[in-house]
Design goal:
It contains 35 helices and 37 strands. With about 1000 residues, it is α/β, with parallel strands linked by helices. It comes from Emiliania huxleyi (strain CCMP1516).
Length: about 1000
C-alpha cells in the first residue's frame, strides 16, 4: 500500500521520479471540496464551465490556513490569455474531441476563472512567430492532454521534436510564458520497435529542454503511473507530477453531467440490466493482441462474452470510438449471433441500429451525453474508459496497451482491468470470456458500491489536480505581472522604447566600450565627439558616453550613475534583471525613474534572452528587427547589437579583452567593493574550486564558471549582425593597441592553461593551417561523431549536461552531430584555419549548457588541453593520433585520460597517408607514428603506442584482430555482427576511461553502417562503469 497523507491507493503504484510528491498533494483540505453530496443531474444549459461550482467556491472555510489562497486569488485577479496546444476541429477519435474541452474546463474550474483561450493545433509545427505571439500576450502555454509522448510516428515533422507536438527545442526554451503540460502520456505500444535514431535523439533533446525550463518556467504532469515510470527513466532530471486526464474529472467539473445509470434498479427481461458499451481498438493489432491466430481467438472470446451478456439481459452497443475500430463490428455483423447497436461518434456519420441507418449528428457534448446513458463501458482505448469513468459510469479496461491497465491500477481498482492478448494472459487461469463475465457480474451485483468507489476515486483525483493548479498559480501571477509592466511601459512616450533609437546614427562609426584593462590605456579624449556605447560602469573612465547599457537596475546605485553620467547619456536598460526573463528592471524604472523615462534618459529594451537565466538557451539567432536586443551572459553583446540597431556602418569594439593585463581583467576603477559585491560576493564554483570577488570575475571571463562563453557569443553575434546588415563592419580595437603598453605583461585569464607544443612538429599549427588552405585538407562533412551520436544518445538516455569532445574536430561536423543529439559538444583542432571555417559554417555554437570552457571550438594541441580534469563524459578521436610524433604520444595520452572521464572512441590509422602533400616544394610526412622503423608494430601488440594505452592484462586474445583491422583485409570480419563479436573495451592505465579502438581507413559512414560494434559494445555494462 502506498499511503498518501492518510489516504491510500488500493494497489501499489510503480515508483517513479516525481510520483510521490505529486500524490502527496491528497489532503483533507482539498478533499473537503469534493465530499459534499453531488448535485442532482439536470440539463446543462449554456456552455459548460466551472460556473456550476468552482473548486475555490467549494473549498470555502475548510481552508482555514489559506493553503489554496494563492490559487483562488490568481483566478480572482484574472487569468488573461492562455494559449492551448491541443487537437482542434473534427477528430476521427471521439476521445480527442472531448479531451481539449475537458482540459480547458479543468483549468477554469480549479482557478475559479476562465481565461481567454487562444487555440492552436498541437500537431502543426510551432514557428518562431508562434513563440513571439505567445510572448506578447500569453499568461501561460497549456499543452495537452493526450498521449503526446509518442515517438514512433513516422511523419517527418516529428523529427522536429521527437513527439507529437512538433516544437523545436529552441522554440520550447524560448517561451517566456510558463509552459504547462497537462496530463500527457507516454503512448508507445508494448513491444513497439524503437523509433529512428534522429527522432529518438530529438525526443530526448525535447525532454532535456523541458528539464531546463523546470525552475519556474515549465511543468510536466503525466496521466498514468505507466507514463511516469517510462518518462522518469528517459529523463531523470525532469521533474514529473501525476495528473489524471481531465476527462476523468467531468462529473466534478460539471456535476450536471454525472450519470446515475449505474444506480438504476435493473429490470427483468431483454435489456433490463442496462447498456453494456464495448470498444475494441483496431490500430496496431499485431502489437495489441499478437499474431492473426491470437487476434481471432480474442474476437471469438469477445463474441462469446457479449452473447452471454445479451442473454443475461444487457443491451449491447458496439462503439466505434475511432472510425477505424471495425474488426469486432464486422465479426458480429457476420455471425449475427445476437442483436446489438452500433454507435459512431465522428461528425457527419450515422448511428445504426442493427443494419438500419438513422441520421444522427454528434459533437463532443453528444459523446458525453451518450456515455451518460451507459451502465458499463468496456474499452481498449484510454478515453474509452476515462470519459465514462469521469461521468461515474462503471468501466472495464480491455488491456491491449499498458495505459488502460495503469489507469485501473491508479484509481485503486486493478480488478477493473482484463488482459486480452493471449500471450500475456495468466496460464491456468479462467478463459477470457469467463473472466470478462466475472468482472461484469461483480459490477452488476455491487452497483451501489461500485458507484461509491467511482465517486471516491474521482474526488482523490480532483484533489491531486487542485494541488497541481496550486503549484502553477505563482508562475501565472509572475507572468501576469510582467505583462502588466510591459503594457504600462508601452503606454508611455515613444521615446522610452527601443524603436525610438532605430537608425538614429545611420552610417556612423560607433565605438562599443567594454571594461577590459586595455581601455584604461586609451585617453578618454579620443572618444570626444564620437558615438559611444559603454557597458555598466565604463563611464568611470569615459564620462561623456552617448549610451550606457546595463542589465541590472538597483535604484540607489543607479541614481548615482545617472548623476555621474550627466544629461547627455541615454541609459539603455534590459527589461529583465541580469538579462533574464521577466520585467523586473522595467518595473523598477516605472516605479523609481518615471521622470527620467518620460525625458528619454532611460530606454527599457525588450530582449531575446540567451543566458543561464533563460533555461540555458544559447545564442543562435537574432530577434526581429527593431523589436528587441540580444542578451547573453556578457553585456558587451547587448551593446554591440545596440550599435547595429542605431544604424552603425562600422562598429569598433574597445576593451573587450578576455585576457589579463598585469594580472588585472578591468581598467582601474571599473569595479569597487559595491559593484563586485553585487555580482561576485557569493562563492562561485569554477573548474578549479570555489572563488569569490575578483578571482570569480576573472574565472567568469575565462569561461571557468558555469555555461558562460563570452568569446563564442561575440563571434556568433558578429556573424548574425553582418548577415542582417550587409556591409556592416565589426572590428576590435584591442588587438592593435600597442602604444603605451610597452613593458606590460599580457596573459590568459585565471584558470586558462597555456597552449602546449603543437602536435607533430614545432610548426604544426602553421603547417596544418596552410594545408587546409592549400589542399582543403579537412573534409567538412565527414565524421565518426555523426555515426556515434545516436548510439551515445541511447546510452545516456535523456540525461542533460553530458559534455562530449571531438579531439581533432576538423571543420566541426562531428561537433554539430553531437549538439544535434542534445549533448554539450566541444571540439579542438590544431588548425586555426579549420576552427575559423567551422565557425563560418555556423558550427560549434551550442555548447556549455552545464559547464565552462573558453569556447565550443578552439585551436589547441592535444598535448595541453584547456579543460579541467574529467571535464568530458566521453571523447572521440578519429584519424588524429597517427599524426603525433612518437615522442608526443605519452603526453597526449596523459592529457586525454585527464579530461575524458568515461568513454573514449579512438580510431587510429596504421597505414601511411593515402596521398602525399607538399608545401614550399617539400613533400610532407603526416602519419608520423606509422613512419617509424617499426611502424607495423608501433600501434599493434607490443608496440610503443599500444603499451602507453593499455596494461598487459587489459588485452584479450580477440583484441588482436581489432588492432590489425585496417591493415589486414582478411580480418575485416572481426567487427562484423556475424563475426566473432564486438571489440574489447579495455581500461587505460592513467584513468578510469573505457577505450574502444577500431583501426580503419574506411569512411566513417560506411564503417558504422557495416559494423554494429559500438552499439553491441556499449551494452556490456560491466565495462562502462
Amino acid at each position: 500500500m502506498l499511503v498518501l497523507h492518510g489516504a491510500a491507493l488500493a494497489a501499489p503504484v510503480p515508483r517513479a521520479a516525481g510520483l510521490d510528491d505529486a500524490l502527496a498533494a491528497w489532503d483533507g483540505v482539498a478533499l473537503h471540496a469534493f465530499r459534499r453530496a453531488p448535485v442532482a443531474p439536470a440539463a446543462c444549459a449554456g456552455p459548460l464551465s466551472w460556473r456550476a461550482a468552482s473548486f475555490c467556491e467549494l473549498v470555502g472555510a475548510a481552508d482555514a490556513a489559506g493553503r489554496f489562497a494563492p490559487l483562488c486569488d490568481t483566478g480572482r485577479r484574472g487569468l488573461g490569455t492562455f494559449v492551448h496546444y491541443s487537437t482542434t476541429g473534427v477528430q476521427k477519435n471521439a476521445g480527442d474531441s472531448v479531451l481539449p474541452r475537458a482540459t480547458r474546463m479543468a483549468v477554469e474550474y480549479f482557478f475559479g476563472a476562465a481565461p481567454a483561450w487562444a487555440l492552436r493545433e498541437v500537431r502543426v509545427p510551432t514557428s518562431a512567430r508562434d513563440v513571439e505571439d505567445a510572448d506578447a500576450a500569453a499568461s501561460a502555454v497549456l499543452v495537452g492532454g493526450g498521449g503526446l509522448f509518442y515517438p514512433a510516428n513516422a511523419h517527418a515533422r516529428q523529427n522536429v521534436s521527437g513527439w507529437q507536438w512538433p516544437v523545436h527545442r529552441a522554440h520550447l526554451l524560448g517561451f517566456e510564458a510558463p509552459v504547462f503540460l497537462f496530463a500527457v502520456g507516454w503512448n508507445a505500444f508494448r513491444g513497439q520497435a524503437e523509433p529512428p535514431a534522429a527522432q529518438w535523439a530529438a525526443y530526448l533533446a525535447s525532454l532535456a529542454a523541458l528539464a531546463a525550463r523546470a525552475h519556474g518556467g515549465g511543468y510536466v504532469t503525466l496521466r498514468e503511473s505507466y507514463s511516469l515510470s517510462a518518462v522518469a527513466a528517459q529523463a531523470p532530471d525532469l521533474p514529473l507530477h501525476y495528473q489524471s486526464c481531465a476527462t476523468t474529472l467531468l462529473a466534478t467539473l460539471q456535476p450536471c453531467l454525472a450519470s446515475e445509470s449505474l444506480l438504476r434498479t435493473p429490470r427483468a427481461g431483454a435489456g433490463g440490466r442496462g447498456v453494456l458499451a464495448v470498444n475494441l481498438a483496431d490500430d496496431e493489432l499485431g502489437l495489441r493482441l499478437g499474431p492473426p491466430a491470437d487476434q481471432e481467438a480474442v474476437l471469438a472470446a469477445l463474441e462469446a462474452w457479449l452473447a452471454g451478456a445479451h442473454a443475461a439481459g444487457w443491451t449491447v452497443h458496439v462503439v466505434l470510438q475511432a472510425t477505424s475500430d471495425r474488426r469486432l463490428l464486422h465479426r458480429l455483423q457476420g455471425t449475427r449471433a445476437f442483436p446489438f447497436e452500433t454507435i459512431t461518434f465522428n461528425a457527419n456519420t450515422r448511428r445504426r441500429r442493427g443494419d438500419g441507418p438513422q441520421p444522427s449528428q454528434r459533437d463532443w457534448l453528444q459523446v458525453v451525453d451518450y456515455y451518460r446513458s451507459v451502465t458499463v463501458a468496456a474499452s481498449s482505448r484510454g478515453h474509452g474508459v476515462m470519459i465514462p469513468f469521469g461521468l461515474h459510469v462503471a468501466t472495464i479496461s480491455l488491456v491491449t496497451h499498458e495505459k488502460v491497465r495503469a489507469f485501473a491500477r491508479d484509481v485503486g481498482h486493478p480488478e477493473w482491468a482484463v488482459e486480452l492478448a493471449p500471450a500475456r494472459r495468466l496460464r491456468g487461469g479462467p478463459g477470457l470470456a469467463e473472466e470478462l463475465t466475472g468482472v461484469l457480474d461483480a459490477i452488476d451485483a455491487n452497483r451501489s458500491a461500485v458507484h461509491a468507489a467511482l465517486v471516491d476515486a474521482q474526488r482523490r483525483l480532483a484533489a491531486v489536480a487542485a494541488a497541481n493548479a496550486l503549484r502553477w498559480a505563482p508562475a501565472v501571477v509572475r507572468r501576469r505581472r510582467d505583462l502588466s509592466t510591459r503594457e504600462s511601459l508601452e503606454k508611455r512616450a515613444a521615446r522610452t522604447t527601443l524603436r525610438a533609437l532605430e537608425g538614429r546614427h545611420a552610417g556612423a562609426d560607433v565605438y562599443v566600450l567594454g571594461s577590459g584593462r586595455t581601455l584604461g590605456f586609451v585617453d578618454p579624449a579620443f572618444f570626444r565627439g564620437r558615438v559611444t556605447v559603454g557597458v555598466n560602469q565604463v563611464n568611470r573612465h569615459v564620462r561623456a558616453l552617448t549610451y550606457l547599457v546595463r542589465k541590472d537596475l538597483e535604484p540607489h546605485a543607479f541614481r548615482d550613475i545617472l548623476a555621474a553620467a550627466g544629461n547627455r547619456t541615454t541609459h539603455v536598460v534590459t527589461r529583465g534583471h541580469k538579462g533574464g526573463q521577466g520585467w523586473k528592471n522595467a518595473r523598477t524604472a516605472l516605479t523609481h525613474f518615471s521622470a527620467e523615462l518620460d525625458a528619454g534618459r532611460i530606454v527599457v529594451a525588450d530582449h531575446a534572452c540567451h543566458t543561464q537565466r533563460c533555461n540555458g538557451s544559447r545564442l543562435e539567432g537574432l530577434p526581429p528587427p527593431g523589436d528587441r536586443l540580444v542578451v547573453s551572459d556578457s553585456t558587451i553583446t547587448t551593446a554591440i547589437h545596440l550599435a547595429a540597431h542605431l544604424g552603425a556602418a562600422r562598429i569598433i569594439v574597445c576593451g573587450h579583452d578576455l585576457a589579463l593585463l598585469d594580472g588585472e581583467a578591468n581598467f582601474g576603477g571599473y569595479h569597487d567593493s559595491a559593484t563586485l559585491a553585487q555580482s561576485w560576493a557569493l562563492p562561485r564554483k569554477s573548474r578549479r574550486g570555489s572563488v569569490t570577488g575578483r578571482a570569480a570575475y576573472a574565472a567568469w571571463l575565462s569561461g571557468d564558471i558555469g555555461a558562460i562563453n563570452i568569446t563564442h557569443d561575440t563571434l556568433v553575434l558578429r556573424d548574425l549582425l553582418q548577415a542582417r546588415y550587409p556591409g556592416l563592419l565589426i572590428y576590435s580595437l584591442s588587438p592593435f593597441l600597442g602604444l603605451g603598453l610597452e613593458g606590460h605583461r599580457v596573459g590568459a585569464p585565471i584558470g586558462t592553461p597555456d597552449v602546449g607544443e603543437p602536435i607533430g612538429t614545432p610548426d604544426a599549427y602553421k603547417v596544418y593551417d596552410r594545408l587546409d588552405r592549400a589542399h582543403a585538407y579537412h573534409d567538412p562533412n565527414r565524421s565518426l561523431e555523426a555515426a556515434l551520436a545516436p548510439h551515445l544518445r541511447r546510452h545516456y538516455g535523456a540525461r542533460t549536461g553530458i559534455r562530449l569532445v571531438s579531439l581533432g574536430c576538423s571543420l566541426g561536423h562531428g561537433v554539430e552531430a553531437f549538439a544535434d543529439a542534445g549533448f554539450d559538444a566541444y571540439g579542438v583542432d590544431v588548425s586555426g584555419a579549420s576552427i575559423e571555417q567551422a565557425l563560418q559554417l555556423g558550427r560549434g555554437r551550442r555548447c556549455a549548457t552545464h559547464g565552462g570552457a573558453p569556447a565550443c571550438l578552439q585551436r589547441a594541441s592535444l598535448t595541453a588541453l584547456p579543460f579541467a580534469d574529467a571535464f568530458f563524459e566521453a571523447g572521440v578521436s578519429a584519424d588524429v593520433l597517427e599524426h603525433l610524433r612518437p615522442a608526443d604520444v605519452p603526453r597526449v595520452v596523459a592529457e586525454v585520460s585527464r579530461v575524458v572521464r568515461s568513454l573514449l572512441f579512438l580510431r587510429i590509422s596504421t597505414v601511411p597517408e593515402g596521398r602525399k602533400m607538399s608545401l614550399d616544394g617539400a613533400e610532407l610526412t603526416l602519419h608520423l607514428t606509422v613512419n617509424v622503423s617499426t611502424h607495423t608494430k608501433w600501434w599493434g601488440k607490443g608496440g610503443g603506442g599500444r603499451a602507453m594505452l593499455f596494461t598487459s592484462t587489459d588485452v584479450e586474445a580477440g583484441d588482436e584482430l581489432v588492432w590489425h583491422y585496417g591493415r589486414d583485409p582478411r580480418c575485416t570480419s572481426a567487427l562484423h555482427p556475424r563475426g566473432p563479436g564486438p571489440p574489447v573495451l579495455a581500461r587505460p592505465r592513467r584513468a578510469a576511461v573505457a577505450w574502444l579502438s577500431a583501426l580503419s581507413e574506411h569512411s566513417d559512414r560506411s564503417y558504422m553502417n557495416m559494423h554494429a560494434d559500438v552499439r553491441e559494445a556499449m551494452t556490456r555494462e560491466a565495462l562502462l562503469h
